[in-house]
């Protein structure tokens, strides 16, 4: 049994009351100017004003006391949307996009996701493991203590399972908690061009049962977009996943308003992600259904697109999460501090709203709020010490990481 107290900290955290913070509540944080956190065996057992935490302690039972020197202490970041499992980068496409070639046109030419699919098919599971682990450890050094990683560069049963196995290995050999998501319908394989209904049938009849037997992925996702998969096809696949006991989420309304946000509300998905083109009626439907809106500002930044309407979503009483969308094509970054800066400076979110977006709401977006996402008693002692006195430092100190120390279950894992 190990007991550690972290004292003399300026603590900021959302307070988990059993649901994500939505609308005006998203900016509500609990804070202690001179706070302390008591951790035992990796879990938080007490948090509050230092005088209260220390008054209830017998000094003899404390194994270690850490003086945080008045610095800011916040929950570890949760990244709820990544594609960190891939085999190679796509730098050449970056130049194409800068020259004005639309992404969907790159996809039609066999680039985009399909080039990553080819690379994954040619990679061994050891190759995928090594590359994914590198991305995950870089994210950890930047404050991400929990993340989601999607498959989706396989597009057939063998390679989707290979990706999920690599993701599982990384989860076992790094400190980061990883939630795997099956994204077999990420793009239309060349062999199924013009036969997308057949591909969805194969995904339902072959891939989903194989993924369920493997038991790694607990969530299912689909890319609903013009030229990729329709809302009807998304409904078919996700409904089949729900019938198999999986939670669902979807890439929705990124380029065109197809109604993906509405489908997410209909299916009571964990989240709908991207949402650059989502209409306000479907935003309201998501809010009523309790679906988290996961926004990906680094993708809009990289693609030089208008940002998702975070303020409108908050006005519609939506819960907003933020994610890196780290992938080899449209958003190659593992940095949640960068994402926070974009959300504050380019999307109009306050530092408090952004902090909730990368902690509590992000945890709900991947069904992990029971153990991470806030500094509540009983949750894991996953937290960061920042090189500053408030969460605003994350956006204010632009272009760098203000994360000084990273703790996972109370153990320092990066500094």
Structural topology:
Blueprint: E1 3-13, E2 30-40, E3 43-49, H1 50-55, E4 64-67, E5 72-75, E6 77-79, H2 91-98, H3 103-108, H4 113-122, H5 125-141, E7 144-150, H6 157-173, E8 177-185, H7 196-214, E9 219-224, H8 231-243, E10 247-252, H9 260-267, E11 271-274, H10 280-289, E12 292-295, H11 297-303, H12 310-315, E13 320-322, H13 336-346, H14 351-357, H15 360-365, E14 383-386, H16 393-396, E15 403-408, E16 411-414
Parallel strand pairs: 1-4, 1-5, 6-7, 7-8, 8-9, 9-10, 10-11, 11-12, 12-13
Antiparallel strand pairs: 1-2, 2-3, 5-14, 14-15, 15-16
Helix pairs in contact: 5-6, 7-8, 9-10
Question: Any overview of this molecule?
Answer:
With 415 residues, the protein is α/β, with parallel strands linked by helices. The chain has two domains: 116 residues, Roll (Urease, subunit C, domain 1), CATH 2.30.40; 288 residues, TIM Barrel, CATH 3.20.20.140. Helix content is 37%, strand content 22%. It contains 16 helices and 16 strands. The strands form two sheets. Strands 1, 2, 3, 4, 5, 14, 15 and 16 form an eight-stranded mixed beta sheet that branches. Strands 6-7-8-9-10-11-12-13 form an eight-stranded parallel beta sheet. Strand 15 and strand 16 form a beta hairpin. Helix 7 runs parallel beside helix 8. The longest helix has 19 residues. The radius of gyration is 21 Å and the shape is globular. The two termini are 25 Å apart. The mean pLDDT is 95.
């Amino acid at each position: 049994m190990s007991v550690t107290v972290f004292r003399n900290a300026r603590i900021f955290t959302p307070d988990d009351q059993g649901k994500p913070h939505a609308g005006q509540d998203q900016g509500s944080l609990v804070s202690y100017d001179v706070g302390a956190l008591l951790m035992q065996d990796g879990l938080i057992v007490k948090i509050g004003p230092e005088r209260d935490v220390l008054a209830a302690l017998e000094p003899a039972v404390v194994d270690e006391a850490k003086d945080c020197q008045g610095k800011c202490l916040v929950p570890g970041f949760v990244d709820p949307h990544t594609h960190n499992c891939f085999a190679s980068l796509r730098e050449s496409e970056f130049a194409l996009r800068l020259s004005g070639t639309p992404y969907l046109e790159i996809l039609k030419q066999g680039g985009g996701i399909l080039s990553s699919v080819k690379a994954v098919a040619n990679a061994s599971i050891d190759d995928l493991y090594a590359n994914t682990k590198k991305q995950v450890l870089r994210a950890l050094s930047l404050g991400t203590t929990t993340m989601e990683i999607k498959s989706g560069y396989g597009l057939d049963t063998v390679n989707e399972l290979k990706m999920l196995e690599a993701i599982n290995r990384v989860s076992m050999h790094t400190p980061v908690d990883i939630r795997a998501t099956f994204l077999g319908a990420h793009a239309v394989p060349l062999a199924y061009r013009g036969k997308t209904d057949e591909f969805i049938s194969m995904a339902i009849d072959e891939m989903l049962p194989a993924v369920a037997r493997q038991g790694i992925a607990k969530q299912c996702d689909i890319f609903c977009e013009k030229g990729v998969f329709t809302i009807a096809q998304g409904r078919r696949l996700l409904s089949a996943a729900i019938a198999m006991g999986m939670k669902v989420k979807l890439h929705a309304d990124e380029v065109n308003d197809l109604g993906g946000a509405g489908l997410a509300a209909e299916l009571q998905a964990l989240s709908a992600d991207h949402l650059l083109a989502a209409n306000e009626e479907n935003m309201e439907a998501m809010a009523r259904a309790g679906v988290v809106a996961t926004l990906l500002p680094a993708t809009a930044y990289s693609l030089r697109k208008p940002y998702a309407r975070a303020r409108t979503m908050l006005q519609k009483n939506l819960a907003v999460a933020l994610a890196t969308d780290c992938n080899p094509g449209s958003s190659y970054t593992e940095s949640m501090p960068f994402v926070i800066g974009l959300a504050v400076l380019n999307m109009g979110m306050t530092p408090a709203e952004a902090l909730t977006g990368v902690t509590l709401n992000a945890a709900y977006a991947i069904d992990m709020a029971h153990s991470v996402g806030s500094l509540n008693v009983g949750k894991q002692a996953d937290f960061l010490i920042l090189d500053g006195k408030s969460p605003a430092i994350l956006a204010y100190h632009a272009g760098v990481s203000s994360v000084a120390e990273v703790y996972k279950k109370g153990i320092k894992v990066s500094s």
